[in-house]
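Researcher: Let's run the pair from yesterday's discussion. Sequence first, then tokens, for each.
Model: Starting with the first of the pair.
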Amino acid sequence: MQAAGASRWPGSRRRRVSARVCANRNRSGELPKKLSFCWWRSSFWWSGGLDSGDNGSELVGERLFGQQDQSSWQKYILAYFLLVRNDYFSGESKKHSDVFCDISELDFFPYATDLDSEELELKEQKPISKAQSGGDSSSNRSNDCYFPGLHDDLSQDCLAWASRSDYPSLSCLNKRFNLLINSGYLYKLRRKYGIVEHWVYLACSLMPWEAFDPSRKRWMRLPRMPCDECFSCADKESLAVGTQLLVFGREYTGLAIWMYNLLTRSWSPCTPMNLPRCLFASGSSGEIAIVAGGCDKNGQVLRSVELYNSEIGHWETIPDMNLPRRLSSGFFMDGKFYVIGGVSSQRDSLTCGEEYNLETRTWRRILDMYPGGTSASQSPPLVAVVNNQLYAADQSTNVVKKYDKVNNAWNIVKPLPVRADSSNGWGLAFKACGDRLLVIGGHRGPRGEVILLHSWCPEGGEGGADWEVLSVKERAGVFVYNCAIMGC
């Protein structure tokens, strides 16, 4: 496939482009070991992390071109674009204009259109005319293309691999970047290529909603929610689905849902459920979420279930559970939705679980899936799924347990880094964040009241590694009201 694609490059033009790129390389010296580039002089700095000494260029070439065995000139052209991008945006692009012109006039540029397919597809690309690019004006050219000389499809692939914390700065470059970022198309590309960044969204007793980026150890405050005073003071539940953060609570007029949109970075009322409820079990997978059970506005315990599609903002009623329950927990595992624990309508503690098959639209009851049960004074079960493995934080014994799917049993893994028994599990968050478990709770110490974010990766062997403190959030109180993990 590569030989067939390479044969379509005009030989003289390919040699001319390669010679110009290499000549420019010789003038500037050897290619640096680490390529770092500034996309916007004063707004932000992004380090690409392409090491010429390791397989970094092969990894990027595989992702962008669709095959691992790339010729050296292809990889260098990609690296060249990334390296000179800073010069272009700082107005020093004249010395590179001849190279960009030659490359942009090529009849096509190889790129992978579907990474799920093993075949590399080559698409004909029309050269950008001067009329389309607004003549020779560099300002017009920068508004009509993302990166000079790079076709839009390849440019968008590059942007999909950028950290989403850089997207707000990217949207400030020009109108075209702004439209691309706000359209949500990059997040669709990220889903297609399996690019996921998990952020923690947290609300504490003395802190409004904030987002935490674990990879950069960076906190970002969300805009204030424009809700009424009743919603602000009432108990709330939260759920992250797709690029949305849903917060459930009660307003003066009744139960309501507020939605934070990652694309617009703003709050707005969300479409209400067909049967509004509270104290429900919930879980999300990609762009869908399921809420099960809970209580209606009159306090009646429910067994009804609804599915939310964040792409269209629609709630769909799906088959009921076998038992009504409230104060239960939900999660996705192995492509199915589960509900465990909770209290029945007779205030009896439920030890059984229920499994919902999305393909057959049926529920299956699992006896003794949560043998400890849940009392009316306890929080819902603190559960999290990492790599399709279920873990739970035991509120009474302060340990982490792992669920054995084959034997329907729980095994102790390691102690919790904080005490959960002091408040019956309330005010504590136990979440999955990618391939790690997070325990978020308050602490009173010499520095006053702080929120500690503890992290542990169970992949390295149960009990083998200790908990790592990801961050210490000061002046946030000691009680975690709501916590949700958004992966996109």
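Model: Moving on to the second of the pair.
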Amino acid sequence: MRGFFQLLAASDVHGNRERMDRIIKYLNEESVDAGVFLGDVTEYKSFYEADKAFYPASLKAAKKPFLTTIGNHDTGNNDEIGSSFSNTKELYEAWIAPSIKFAGPGTTHNGEDCYYYTDFPKQGVRIIVLNQYDHNDRKADATHYLHRRNHEMYSQRQIDFYINALETLPEGYGVITCLHNSPGTMIPFNMGYSSEHTYGFMLPSYISESIIPFITDGFINGTKAGKNFEIPTLGSRGQLTADFDFTRRGVGEFICYLGGHYHNSMLSRVKDYPNQLMYNVDSAGCDATTLQYSHFQRDESEEHMDSFAHITIDRARKMVSIKKIGTTLDEYGAVRLETKFLYQRCR
């Protein structure tokens, strides 16, 4: 029965091997079908070699599918320290190649890009993993081209991949789209659970408009469209095209976006597309100075304090339940244990 799908969601471990191992331990021992890591395995360039070793070593213990998303720190593109990777291939070989084998038997991947999808036929769910730091010119440096490491960029190849992943969705499946950062400008949703700092946060992007939500909207409503999106910094080469026709398959079931990046547990919706919700999971482990508005306790000496999420998707009722594992206090001392929302009633 395609009733429930249980997912472990974690992000921003920032080199903390102990917490990463406990994430995998939870995956193996608790009632979850799969896990997803939403980016930022590492912290800074000086730790890359060690982090590239520990991450796949941790994943080897996984007994269930575990998907990996590229984060802005993982690209190595930093104005101060420079890039650790000279091209897309090196970025792929550092993070995706060692981890794609753990994504599960239902994974479709071309063996060279940092984006893919995994199907879960029993539950009727497709998880699409995107790479928000992907250059339009595959021959150019993919991580240190013209852009800051936390700015959104897609290749036309990846845009076409996302459209195809939605067009080829098996009948009766629902979709979860994973990316490290938000897909556009976001506004708060369910403020009784989310931080006030959810309000109005915006994805730094070199694309003129939110291309991923535009495509997702077409999928949800079963429409046809063709639109160009400008990338002003690239001049005449700066254009992406979203050309799709979802009329043949009809309306689609979009569950939500999942991400990390903000070091906070946040629920929000895309500003111009209120039927598209996103949950950003808290930082699973990082230095106290990097915590920002995290739900982590202020005392980072408490290594036993985890912070990730157990997400239950009830597809029959169109309901998502998010339960925090580990830290449950927000920056104001309020307890945030669990929240639920109906993903088909947010229009």
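Researcher: Give me one sentence on the second I can quote.
Model: The chain has one domain: 4-342.
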